[in-house]
Amino acid sequence: MTGRLAAVAATIALLMFLAAPLAWTLVASLTPEEQLFDHPAALPRDPGFDHYRALFDERNFLVPVRNSLIVAGLTTALAVPIGALAAYAIARLRFRGKAALLAFVLAISMFPQISLVPPLYLLLRELGLIDTYPGLVLPYLTFAMPLTIWLMVAFFRQLPRELEEAAMMDGAGRLRVLLEIVLPIAWPGIAATAILVFLYSWNEFLFALSFTIGPERQTVPVAIALFRGRYQVPWGQVLAAAMVASVPVMLLVLLFQRRIVQGLTAGAVKQ
Amino acid sequence: MASIALERIEKVFPGGHEALRHFSLEIPDGEFMVLVGPSGSGKSTALRIIAGLETPTAGRVLIGGVDVTAVPPQKRDLAMVFQSYALYPHKTVRENLAFGLRMRGAAAGTIEERVAEVSRALQVEALLDRRPAQLSGGQRQRVALGRAMVRSPRAFLFDEPLSNLDPALRGDTRAELSILHARLRATMVYVTHDQEEAMTLGTRIAVLDNGVLQQVAPPRELYERPANVFVARFVGSPPMNLLRGTGQIPAGISGLDPSTAVLGIRPHDLAIAATDEADVMVMVEVVETLGHQLHLRCRTESPDPAPIVVATAADRAVAAGDRLPLRMRRDRVHRFDPATGRRLESASGGNPG
Questions:
Q1: Are B43 and B234 in contact (CB under 8 A)?
Q2: Distance between CA atoms of B61 and B350, rounded to whole angstroms?
Q3: Is any Cβ of chain B less than 8 angstroms from the Cβ of A173?
Q4: Cβ(B244)–Cβ(B216) under 8 Å?
Q5: pLDDT exceeds 80 at position B112
C-alpha cells in the first residue's frame, strides 16, 4: 500500500516537474505586464488576453506562424516520401556499399549546424534563395533527410519480410509491394517520423535566423527572439508567442498519438 | 501445371555458409515432392530458390522446361504457403484472397467468382470480412492455403505450413492437402522437418542433410531401402538401430562380415525369441508405453554394449531390468559401408562388400 502511494506521489512529482514550465508560461502569458514581476503567483489576479491581442495586432505574429507552417510543412512533405523510399531500398535491397551509405547519411547529420551556415549562405545567395521559402526548406532537408532515413530504416527492418515475399509470390513487383503492403503497414511509423521532422523544422532557429532578412520570411522562433527591444524585453508577449508556437505541435501529437501507438501488424504472422 | 527442375544448384550465402552443394532435383508435372531434413539442411533454401526468393550462386532453375533462373518471383506464376502464413494484416480475408488475382489483372467478376469458390471449399465464407488478427490459427492457415488456391499457379510451394498448428488439426489438414493434390493433380513442393509428414504426403521424398541431397525415392522405398546411414536413421520412428564391428554385431548373420559392414535393423524388425534362437541378449532399461505398442530402450550384452530399441506388442509383460533374447528378421537386415555410410546392395545374396 505504501509502495503504491509512493509510486503515485512520484508520478505526480514528475508530472509537476515536467508541466511546471508550461503552466508558468501559460499563467504569465495571461498576466498583465505590470504584475509580471510582482510575486510568483499560481494564478494571475486579473487574467487577460492583452499579450495575445498585442501579438497579433501590433506585431503581426500571423506572418511568422504562416511562414513556420509553410516551411515545416514543405520540409516534411519532401523529406518523408523521399526519405521513406530511400530507407526502404536500404532496408530491403542488396547492393554494394550499403553500410557505407548509411554511415555517410549519419555523418551528414553529425556536422555542427553552425559549420554549415557560411557555405550554405554563399550557396543560397548565389542561387538567389536568401529570404525565400526554398531558402529554408532546402537547408532543412540536411537534417530532415538523415532523420527520416534512419528512423524509417529501423522501422522497415522490423516488418516481417515474409509479407513482402508473399506479395511477390502473388505477382506484385517491388513498387506494388511497397505501395500495397509495406506503406499501409508502416503507416504508424511514417506518421511518427513525419511528426518528428515537422517538430524539428518548426523549432529550428539557426538556419532560419541566418537565411532570412526581414519579417516577411521569418519563422516563429526567429520572430520571438527578435521581440526584444533595445531597452526592454516584452516578456508577456514572448510567453504568449511561446504558447502560440507550442499549441499546433501539441495538437498534432495528441491527434496522432492513438494512431501511432496502435499496432497495425497484429495477426500478420504468428507471434 | 508444370514440371520443375533444379540443375547443379550451388548456394553460398554472404558470410560463406554453404546452404546447398551440387543440388539437382527433377520434379515431374503433377508430383507431390516433399523436401525433408533437419534444420539447416538446405531444404527451405531449395524451395526459396524454386520460388525465386533466393538466387542460386551457380546452377539453373527450370519450370516447364524453361530456364527461369533470372526471372523474379512475381513472374514465375507459382503460389507459396508460408510457415507464418504471411497474411496481409491490413486487408480483409476477401482482399487477401483476391490480391494475387488482382495483381495479375483478373476481371472483377472473375475475382469475385474465384474468391467465393475457394472460400466455400475451405469453409471460410463467414470470415470474408474479417482481418487476420480476428482469426484463429487454423482459420489463418486455411486462408493462407486459399490465397494459393485462388489462382491456378504452375506449381504450389509449401514451407512448413502445418508446423504452427496444434497436432489434432495438423492431421486433418494433412489429409486435406492429400485430397487437394489428388483433385488438382498439381505440381506441389513441400518442405518439412517432420519425417512422418513427409512419408504421409509425398509421392516422392527428397532427403537433405547439410546441403547435400541424400536420396530421392517414394516413401516405401525410402523406408525399405535407405541409401545411407543418415536416411536410415532419419526416416522411420523410432530410428533404425545401428550395430558396428565385431563387438556389437552378433555372429551368425549370414552374408554379413562384421569387419566390413555396419548392420542396421529397425525396432519393428526385432522379435523377442526363444533363448536358443536369439541373435543377441539385451537388458531392458526403459519401457515406453504408446498404447498400441511398447518401445523398449535396451542395451545389448555383447562385448561392446550398444543401445538398441525394440518395438513390440503392447500386451507383452516387460519391465525395466528384464533380460530378453532378441532375434532379427533376416530379410530386414540392412548393411552399410562403415567408411562411407552407403548402403551395401548385395546383402541378401550373402556376399558382403
A1: no
A2: 43
A3: yes
A4: no
A5: yes
Strands (E), chain B: 4-12, 18-27, 32-36, 58-63, 66-67, 78-81, 155-159, 188-192, 204-209, 212-217, 241-244, 262-265, 270-272, 280-289, 293-300, 307-313, 323-328, 334-336
pLDDT at A118: 94
Can you tell me the distance from the alpha carbon of B247 to that of B303, in angstroms, rounded to the nearest whole number?
5
Q: Which grid coordinates are listed for A71?
A: 516551411
b/e per residue B313-328 (b: at least 16 CB within 10 A): eeeeeeeeeeebbbbb
Neighbours of B110 (CB within 10 A): 10
Indicate yes or no: CB of A176 within 8 angstroms of CB of B103. yes
What is the arrangement of strands in the sheet containing B78-81, beginning at the earlier edge strand? B78-81, B155-159, B188-192, B32-36, B204-209, B212-217
| CA quadruple A37, A40, A41, A44: dihedral sign | positive
Q: Are A132 and B40 in contact (CB under 8 A)?
A: no
Tell me the C-alpha to C-alpha distance, in Å, between residue B195 and each of B80, B138, B207: 21, 22, 9
| Residues shown for chain A | 271
- Least trusted range by pLDDT, from B17-26, B37-46, B148-157, B161-170: B161-170
The answer to whether residues B19 and B176 touch, using CB atoms and an 8 Å cutoff, is no
DSSP B179-208: HHHHHH---EEEEES-HHHHHHH-SEEEEE
DSSP string, A108-177: HTTS-HHHHHHHHHHHHHHHT-TTSSHHHHHHHHHHHHHHHHHHHHHHHHTS-HHHHHHHHHTT--HHHH
Cβ separation A160–B84 shorter than 8 A: yes
Q: How far, in Å, CA of A109 to CA of A142, rounded?
A: 7
Instruction: Give A171's contacts in chain B (Cβ within 8 Å).
Output: 74-75, 77, 100, 103-104
pLDDT in tens, A4-19: 899 999 999 999 898 8
Find where cell 538401430 sits: B241
From chain B, the residues in CB contact with A264 under 8 A are 89-90
Mean pLDDT of B223-231: 96
**Does A98 contact B at CB distance below 8 Å?**
no
pLDDT value at position B199? 95
pLDDT category at A42 given cuts 50, 70, 90 is low
Are A224 and A242 in contact by the 8 Å Cβ rule? The answer is yes
pLDDT tens for each residue of B67-107: 999 999 999 999 999 999 999 999 999 999 999 999 999 99
Q: What stretch of H or E contains B102?
A: helix B93-103
Whether residue A129 contacts residue A66, with contact meaning beta carbons closer than 8 Å, is answered with no
Between residues A35 and B225, which one has the greater pLDDT?
B225
